[in-house]
């Protein structure tokens, strides 16, 4: 009788211990470290391992955590009672992350979401570079639809669903904030341009009104922008081609004010022609914001009366720009 009672008590205690802890076993191919770190709000646990094998049991508040291995990071959703097995290749961490065991649905959802987020970040860059808000909005809507379909189609933990929906809304808000200037400037063609009054490399200041009566081609750039520098020869060639036409070529640097001397030296060393100006507050300058410029280089064409003809013109290296200018100037 005592042996039976002991067995029952022992079994109950073992079951209770299992439900009050998370058991995590990780296998990482080509492991770059002999440890993994589980961290969250007011929580951190270092799990030591050997040959890429890590195992531990511990108690956690229910919620989202980071699993770090060297420079790699994956998201986890942990809840006492979970028994998770995690596998990944250190060289392709996020794309190979896979979970099995109790809690696998939630954690495989997070792994897939991380890959989808990386893909979205790469794809949106094209629309950010072009200042294309409609294109971005279409991409964002597709992302939202895919997320809603996945989060509502699986038997996921209810607390987990609340958490990831909150996270997703935060990410959407972040992207919308990034694209807010582009959205505000989407339909500026045909409207009067904002003005500016910026430091001129040759001395003094120049404002938009100084070029009234001429077409204005504006190049927004910075000394640290590699793609901008690659366009310089094409800008110079274009300025030479249209030197006798009614058009002014104005370059506006958005280097930080503290880098003014660097900008001056750069313009001199590169022997850049046209009108070389420096914006007053870098990328936060009002003229830059009004045009929704969040990536450079950016090219703008303004009519002699100050009307915006093209707030996002083709690059000088694109033959289509010459066709556009020929129609305006000939």
3D structure, described in words:
With 330 residues, the chain is α+β, with helices and mostly antiparallel strands. It has three domains: 1-101, Immunoglobulin-like; 103-184, no CATH class; 197-329, Glutaredoxin (3-Layer(aba) Sandwich). It is built from nine helices and 15 strands. The strands form two sheets. The chain has an eight-stranded mixed sheet with strand order 6-5-2-3-4-1-7-8. The chain has a seven-stranded mixed sheet with strand order 10-9-13-12-11-14-15, with helices on one face. A hairpin with a 2-residue loop joins strand 3 (43-50) and strand 4 (53-58). The protein is elongated, with a radius of gyration of 29 Å. The relative contact order is 0.09.
Q: Which characteristics define this entry?
A:
single chain; 330 residues; alpha+beta; Immunoglobulin-like; Glutaredoxin; 3 domains; 8-stranded mixed β-sheet
CATH homolog superfamily of the largest domain: Glutaredoxin
What is the string of SSEs from the N terminus onward?
A: HEEEEEEEHEHHHEEEHEHEHEEH
Beta-strand content:
25-35%
Helicity, as a percent range: 40-55%
State the strand order across the main sheet. 6-5-2-3-4-1-7-8
Overall, the morphology is elongated
Rg, Cα atoms, Å? 29 Å
CATH architecture descriptor name of the largest domain: 3-Layer(aba) Sandwich
Discrete helix count: 9
Average of pLDDT: 91
- Termini separation: 107 Å
Spans of 5+ residues with little confidence (pLDDT < 50)? Answer: 5-18
Let me know the number of strands: 15
CATH topology of the largest domain: Glutaredoxin
Domain module tally: 3
């Amino acid at each position: 009788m005592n042996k039976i009672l002991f067995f029952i008590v022992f079994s109950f205690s073992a079951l209770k211990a299992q439900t009050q802890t998370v058991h995590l076993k990780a296998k990482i191919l080509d492991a770059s470290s002999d440890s993994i770190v589980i961290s969250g709000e007011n929580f951190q646990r270092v799990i030591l391992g050997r040959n890429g094998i890590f195992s531990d049991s511990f108690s956690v508040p229910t919620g989202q955590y980071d699993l770090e291995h060297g420079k790699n990071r994956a998201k986890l959703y942990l809840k006492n009672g979970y028994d998770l097995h995690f596998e990944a290749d250190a060289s392709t961490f996020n794309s190979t992350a896979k979970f099995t065991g109790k809690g696998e649905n939630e954690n495989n959802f997070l792994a897939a979401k991380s890959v989808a987020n990386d893909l979205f970040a790469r794809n949106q860059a094209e629309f950010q570079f072009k200042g294309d808000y409609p294109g971005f909005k279409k991409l964002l809507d597709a992302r939202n639809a895919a997320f809603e379909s996945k989060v509502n189609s699986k038997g996921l933990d209810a607390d987990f669903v609340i958490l990831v929906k909150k996270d997703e809304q935060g990410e959407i808000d972040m992207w919308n904030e990034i694209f807010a200037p582009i959205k505000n400037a989407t339909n500026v063609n045909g409207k009067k341009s904002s003005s500016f009054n910026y430091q001129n490399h040759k001395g003094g200041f120049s404002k938009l009104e100084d070029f009234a009566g001429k077409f204005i081609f504006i190049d927004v750039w910075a000394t640290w922008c590699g793609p901008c520098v690659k366009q310089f020869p094409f800008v110079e060639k274009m300025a030479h081609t249209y030197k006798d036409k009614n058009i002014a070529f104005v370059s506006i640097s958005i280097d930080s004010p503290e880098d003014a001397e660097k900008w001056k030296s750069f313009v001199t060393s590169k022997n850049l022609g046209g009108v070389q100006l420096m914006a007053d507050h870098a990328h936060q300058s009002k003229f830059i914001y009004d045009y929704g410029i969040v990536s450079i280089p950016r090219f703008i064409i303004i009519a002699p009366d100050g009307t915006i003809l093209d707030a996002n013109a083709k690059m000088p290296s694109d033959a289509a720009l010459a066709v556009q200018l020929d129609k305006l100037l000939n």
